[in-house]
Please model this.
Amino acid sequence: MAHLDLLSEQQKAKRTRPAQRFYWRVGKRGLDLILAIVLLPFLLPIIAALILMVRLCGGPGLYAHTRIGQNGKTFTCWKIRTMVRDADGRLADHLAKNAEAAEEWKRTQKLQDDPRVTALGQHLRRTSLDELPQIWNVLRGEMSLVGPRPVTPSELERYGPHQQVYLSHKPGVTGLWQVFGRDDGCYAQRLQMDLSYTRQIGMWRDLSLIARTALVVIRGTGR
Model:
């Protein structure tokens, strides 16, 4: 029954108004470029300072990871590095020794108490400052300022038969899940939020989510 409900929601999402379709196809990219160019002079000094801080702690300042973009095209997504250099080994060792953490990871692909994250990284994640380098992905057209949270190939599989809901968008630096649902790793919730965004897509909606993201940064409620 839940499967049928989601299919119904997908059909509703496709029936967007002409103004919404125009914004999705043309206006959204224009808004991304205008805001990214305006913000770039302010963000570059912050990004440079954060890279330097991370490098002083040891290791590279940036972290590049592969994500799935619109229509299934992969791209390199950039972030300020928030994890230790041997992150994969640290995670494997932690999960092998902690059954509760292993179950949490299997369920959400996240850990409330993540041994890989550095002390500085914890602060960067709470304020979402680690995601500032994604402005480069926006300028390149691989991401949008607002959209679904970018996922890995294994995460996309969790969308099951509804992967097209995610694939129809460019991933966003921010979005509904990033603002309202980031403490919950439930993929069913993420899917519902992606559907909700598709139904209500528009310039004022995007500007509202960008403004709310600023509050997340100020309050440090990220994860």
